[in-house]
Amino acid sequence: MKHKRITIRDNYAEAALFARRVFVSLLVVVVTFGVLLLNMYHLQVVEHQQFQTRSNDNRIKVVPLAPNRGIIYDRDGRILAENRPVLSLEITPEQVEDLDATLARLQQLLEFDASVIEDFHETRRRERRFNQVILLDRLTEQQAARVAVRQHDFPGVSIEARLVRHYPYGEAITHALGYVAKINRTDLNKLTEQGLAANYAATRVIGKLGVERFYEEQLHGSIGYQQVEVDIRGRNIRTLSVQPPVPGQDLHLELDAELQQFAYDLLGQDRGSIILMDPRDGAILAMVSKPSYDPNWFAQGISYAQYQSLLNSTHSPLLNRSTQGGYPPASTIKAHLAITALEQDIITPNSRIWDPGWFMIEGVDHRYRDWLAWGHGWVNVTDAIVESCDTFYYDIALKMGINVIHDDMVRYGFGERTGIDIAEESAAVMPSPGWKRARFNQPWYAGETVSIGIGQSFWTTTPMQLAVATSVLANRGERPVPRLLESIAEGPVRIPAVVEQREPVVLKHANNWEVAHQALTKVITSPKGTARRAFQGASYTSAGKTGTAQVRSIGQDEEYNAEEIAEKYRDNAMYVGYAPAENPEVVVVIAVENAGGGSSIAAPMARQLLDAYFADPAPTGGLESVLAILEEPADAN
Amino acid sequence: MQTSQERQRHKWLSRFHIDGPLFLALLVLALLSLVTVYSASGQDLAMTERQVVRIGLAFVAMLVVAQVPLSLVERWSLPIFAVGIVLLLGVLLFGESSKGAQRWLNLGAATIQPSEIMKLAVPMAVAWFIAQQGLPPTKTRLAGAFLLLLIPTLMIAKQPDLGTSLLIASAGIFVLFLAGMSWRLITLFGVAIGAFIPVLWFFLMHGYQRQRVLTFLDPERDPLGSGYQIIQSKIAIGSGGIEGKGWLQGTQSQLEFLPERHTDFIFSVFSEEFGLIGVIGLFLLYGFIIFRGMILAMRAQKVYHKLLAGSLTLTFFVYVLVNIGMVSGLLPVVGVPLPLVSYGGTSMVTLMTGFGLLMAIATHKRLVMHD
């Protein structure tokens, strides 16, 4: 009985004890859930905003969208630079089961080098597995077709189109138009400095030269953005929003692609520069520099070997001869010097000198020879220009002195940049005693002034400077700034380029313009004119001046014989001119390196070019004038 | 007053040893699990179907266990525990490695995880041992019980599986607590554990376990490494806000920023998609299950039944606490799934077997009928 009672009491006590412990437990449970809930409240309510932001940062990626680059047209609407879709064969490694086997089959199908596969593996390592990697860029249509037909055999392999800058005229316009190429570190640093790096986030290429470089800002456009939702591997899930890029503006150039191509072909195998420019507003119709190269190499990604070959070529194809080439102007500046002498009252339109075929500075035993060994006899200023008499210029140059010549020639733009709308431009050299002192730490010698009289010595000009200086003559004083740009398209509206003029050359006696003009006209028309044969039978009037620049000084008793001296020491042939003579609307400048005389080489080229300009269907001079020239004395200036 | 229909139903339920309220709550939880697993798996139907099968199996296990006579369970407590120890020994000697720990034992026909058996065997054995005497237990019996729970705890910790070993230890300790272990001893025990922590840290913990704790203390110190999980989990929870992003709309989980999203971190998915409102609902559901379990434990008449039911319920609560605490950044990351919601079969079957025992206890014929 007793035992039983104890058991019952124990049962009761046990139940009570257990209940107390359960009560404590549940209290702990409630408190704990309270703590958990408080924490949840903290995360989901108090700090919700912060976590919301971080969640969005996780999933939303902003993908920059590159704007399409503006198209460049010539004055007649021909496309000079465009964006062409290029087909490339791309592989998404993630979607390919057996990569090596697929590559082997593709190689068999498309017949490419093993190096292509090596390059592919190289690129693939840098990319994420689900990104497309380019195997072949620039697929031929045939290759693309072969893959397309067997597309089902190649999962993960696709043909993609990308836009690549294309220059349909190739090497003919390279130096004026320039090119785009991959943005490199230097470009990136520059963009960063200018605060433009963000705008280029999606852009792969940038203008490196010529118009493409100068008008980069207009051509590039503004970047767009796409908000995409990505998963943890960065794979695009869906597009949330798009702010489309603003395409670059189209440019219309003053260039006439047909004239440009004509001028380019005209130079043939020769090196040199040709410029056609409207003297009234500086509009450049053609600007050729030869040798050239295909800008598409750069736009599509130039190989190291290709670039080295351009860089190391003895003929410097990368140089823009029209604006960077420093040519001795030779006789092409004789009209300018004549005006200076007239203005300085050193000569009058009628004063004459006797040319025995050479010139000597008093007291110095050195003969400065005229190109015509037996001399021109009595010559006045007009004769001196028409026949290109050197002795006359030796004389007046010495009388004017280097400082007068320098100060006056600077007014025509010699020795300074013309301000053309490309960055590649040299100021060339309009020498002065001060310049020589600074450059060589040597005094100026009178003999150098004599040589300056025929555009030699230290004097160099770019063909573009000659175009400007010749325009000043054609305009009777007004000095245009050369300009490639005609207008910029802004939507349907074309905003014309700003036409600039530099300070005009004002003469004391305006009639002196006419003296020069008439002399330059007679170069074409006079029986003794150095460009007479070249312009025989032209359907238009024109004025001009030939020039033959020595690139090596000839010994005192040496005869210049083109046949006997190395090509690189042969004379440069020069020509400057404008047409029509009465109302000039086009200036032509020709510089042909190591080609021979201005009269025999450069003037006929100018003729053909002007013929083309004035739309003679096939330049009439053609074969006849070439034959006629062959009979001319080789070294007529 | 009960209507005749209700009485009818009640009778039917008790005949199959089912506690209605508990069963209903578990069913709702299972449905929540399916809904969340479907979303967390990236709407993977095959995976969701596997979860359906597992839940089905787990419920079957629960119902089967509920039918087992309790006297049988009580008698088998020690033998099951002994078998568990042998199997644990087998794991330590011949176990199969997975994720750097030996937890599995290949018995030829099936691969089993003996630590899962121990989750039930330890409270059963400890409860049985305590129930041999009246409550509160004597100091000697307490010491014996401690030995009983310490052996498997250390063996599992050696695998190493710190999370499970702590859960198993707590299951045993809950028995002792409910049995009326004196507060003085509890305090002493707490102090001892406090003193044990440095020992644990320097001698018993593995590098990755220490890393987990360090990361837990400051997840941002290694945002791409071991802190990544917890940061992404907190972002998921926090960005869910009050109303949540909506079912299948959780960007953290759908876009896979959240690791282990259908297993250990499923609560983060749930919180992201259903927000604080959903979380409160889930807490209420868990709270209800725990309260119901404790009520059933109180109603039980035999000491063994009371202790076992109470311990199983409190262990279930600890699962919930550890998982939610871990994914919300209150506790270090230990591999504990959210009970009955996380994707995965083993723990679900174990838990439901436990609930089967609970139901058996709840529907056991009472010695004294009160009503």
From TrEMBL, chain A:
Its cofactor is Zn(2+). Binds one Zn(2+) ion per subunit. Its EC number is 3.4.16.4. The keyword Cell inner membrane applies. It catalyses: Preferential cleavage: (Ac)2-L-Lys-D-Ala-|-D-Ala. Also transpeptidation of peptidyl-alanyl moieties that are N-acyl substituents of D-alanine. Zn(2+) binds at D355, D370, H376, C389. It is an enzyme of class 3 (hydrolase). One of its GO terms (molecular function) is serine-type D-Ala-D-Ala carboxypeptidase activity. InterPro entries: Beta-lactam/transpept, Beta-lactam/transpept-like, PBP_dimer, PBP_dimer_sf, PCN-bd_Tpept, Penicillin-binding_protein_2. Pfam families: PBP_dimer (PF03717), Transpeptidase (PF00905). It is found in: Cell inner membrane; Cell membrane; Membrane. It is a single-pass membrane protein. The active site is at S331 (acyl-ester intermediate). Residues 272-610 form the Penicillin-binding protein transpeptidase domain. Residues 66-240 form the Penicillin-binding protein dimerisation domain. Keywords: Carboxypeptidase, Cell inner membrane, Cell membrane, Cell shape, Cell wall biogenesis/degradation, Hydrolase, Membrane, Metal-binding, Peptidoglycan synthesis, Protease, Transmembrane, Transmembrane helix, Zinc. The chain crosses the membrane at residues 21-41. Pathway: Cell wall biogenesis; peptidoglycan biosynthesis. Catalyzes cross-linking of the peptidoglycan cell wall. Belongs to the transpeptidase family. MrdA subfamily. This is Peptidoglycan D,D-transpeptidase MrdA. It comes from Pseudidiomarina fusca. The gene is mrdA.
